[in-house]
Amino acid sequence: MTLAAIAITILMIMAASEAQAQTYTVIHNFTGGADGGGPDSTLAIDAAGNLYGTAATGGNSSGNCYGSCGLVFKMKASGSGWVLTPLYAFTGGSDGSAPAGVVFGPDGALYGTTTAGGVSCSSNRQYGCGTVFTVRPSATVCKSALCPWSESVLYRFTGSPGDGAAPNAPVAFDQAGNLYGTTVQGGVANNFGCPYGHDWCGTVFELSPSDGGWTETVPYIFPLLGSAGQNPESGLAIDAAGNLYGTALVGGVNGGGTVFELTPSSSGWVENNLYSLPDGNNTGDFPHGTLIFDPAGNLYGTTSVGGQNGGGTVFELSPSGGGWSYSLVYGLSGFEQDGPETGVTRDSAGNLYGTAYELGNNAGQIFKLTPSNGGWTYTLLHQFDYNDGCLPVGGVTVDAHGNLFGTASACGTYGSGVVWEITPN
User: Fold this and answer.
1) Predicted pLDDT at 281
2) In Å, how far from its chain's centre is CA 199?
3) Spatial distance between the Cα atoms of 252 and 345, rounded to a whole number of angstroms
4) Residue (of 423, 338, 355) closest to 389 by Cα position
5) Which portions of the chain are predicted below pLDDT 70?
6) If we measure between CA atoms, which residue out of 97, 92, 102 comes closest to residue 115?
7) What is the rounded distance in angstroms from the CA atom of residue 43 to the CA atom of residue 27?
8) Among residues 343, 346, 347, 371, which one has the least CA distance to residue 355?
9) What are phi and psi of 14, to 5 degrees?
10) Beta partners for residue 406, in sequence order
């Protein structure tokens, strides 16, 4: 046998072994109509085990969008299956369009961003600069089988100098109830354009509750040049001291993106570049997804490209001597841009779970990394086959029983993506 054939055989044996250890099930096939389509974000979960997410398209077919405008949905277990309920369908006007995930706020409502819609944009964006929104159950008693939630817009981005445009990730709350996020574009004008995206290089924004509304400030604007990087596509992690941690997709010292920290001070926020990718040692580049902390204060993230095996990486940054030390958790096997489009999720046992956009047969994978003898062991949990979904962009959600949930942005029965579940046997 050739080396390639041997490698394929080993992978098939591993996949078969893992298939005996858990069960993969599609719990919803999106039609691209009233139930939405193109789910591309990580699901939120409540204490009762209900799932909440967004579909980037579908919903309101008469909306002012390029196609339909997307929606927020809920999934509830019912008998032996699941039922999807649309909570709010965007119109593409002042309420936004193309939602990019939701999280629970301190008040129990759902909060998120839309990449487009809102108000006309001074940046080069035909369909608006995006919004920050909240959706919550109606204050009145619902008497129908389908009970839509009400949406409120907290902020509409303008794309003008000093403001952001195109938020493309979920938001995060600090202990005081302030809300933080990133925009891929906007910030400051320049005559050259950023390495990725449109005219400007992106921002970190803050929304603070104020007199029954919200006040926006911009803690940081990414510059065209320098070590900070540009075009942050990920959300933010927040530590107990209120420091913000995130990734910039491109730029930095080596051009392959950065991991950064923003620290509040009496004179404003101070940016610190924790790490620039790639460093020439198979670290991968183009970091995607929100960073996560473990109980020891270590950060975990992903890159979508490169690494020692070509399919992107999972990495760890650990506090060390007043700085941060990089270590490779795992180098995924694949080709350029096959790797993770989002971050990893950690369970209570310290295992990491993630998705890879096109690894395997160009359809994508779900994987697990287990701490083992000072290193990490990779396990393939599921290889998408197009019929059961493909091209996962969102990450993995773990419930209290160890079941895994997530989305694939395309394929499935109707070609518009799926929600999936993996249950341990």
Assistant:
1) 72
2) 23
3) 26
4) 355
5) 1-21, 61-64, 66-67, 122-126, 140-146, 189-199, 336-337
6) 97
7) 13
8) 343
9) -60, -45
10) 420
Q: How many residues does the chain have?
A: 425
Q: Is 354 exposed, middle or buried (0-12, 13-18, 19+ CB in 10 A)?
A: buried
Backbone angles phi, psi at 119, to 5 degrees: -125, 165
**293 CB neighbour count, 10 Å cutoff:** 15
Strands 110-116, 323-333: pairing is: unpaired
- Residue bearing tokens 């900070």: 228
The structure's pTM equals 0.91
131-157 pLDDT tens trace: 999 999 977 666 665 678 999 999 999
Cis peptide before 319 (omega within 30 of 0): no
Question: How many whole angstroms separate alpha carbon 315 and alpha carbon 114?
Answer: 29
pLDDT the model gives residue 193: 58
Tell me, letter by letter, the H, E, C secondary structure of the chain: CCHHHHHHHHHHHHHHHHHCCEEEEEEEECCCCCCCECCCCCCEECCCCCEEEEECECCCCCCCECECCCEEEEEEEECCEEEEEEEEECCCCCCCEEEEEEEECCCCCEEEEEEECCCCCCCCCCCCCCEEEEEECCCCCCCCCCCCCEEEEEEECCCCECCEECCCCCCEECCCCCEEEEECEEECCCCCCCCCCCCCCCEEEEEEEECCEEEEEEEEECCCCCCCCECCCCCCEECCCCCEEEEECEECCCCECEEEEEEEECCEEEEEEEEECCCCCCCCEEEEEEEEECCCCCEEEEEEEECCCEEEEEEEEEEECCEEEEEEEEEEECCCCCCCCCCCEECCCCCEEEEECCCCCCCCEEEEEEEECCEEEEEEEEECCECCEECCCCCCEECCCCCEEEEECEECCCCECEEEEEEEC
Hey, what are 305's tokens? 């490209």
Which residues, 6 or more positions from 418, have their beta carbon under 8 angstroms from its beta carbon? 26, 27, 28, 29, 30, 39, 388, 389, 407, 408, 411, 412
pLDDT tens-digit map of 311-354 = 999 999 999 988 999 999 999 998 766 899 999 999 999 999 99
* 339/311 Cα distance (integer angstroms): 5
CA-atom Rg of the chain in angstroms: 21
Token code pair at residue 394 = 């969102």
Six-digit token pair at 408? Answer: 């694939």
HSE value, Cβ hemisphere, 13 Å, CA-based, for 196: 19
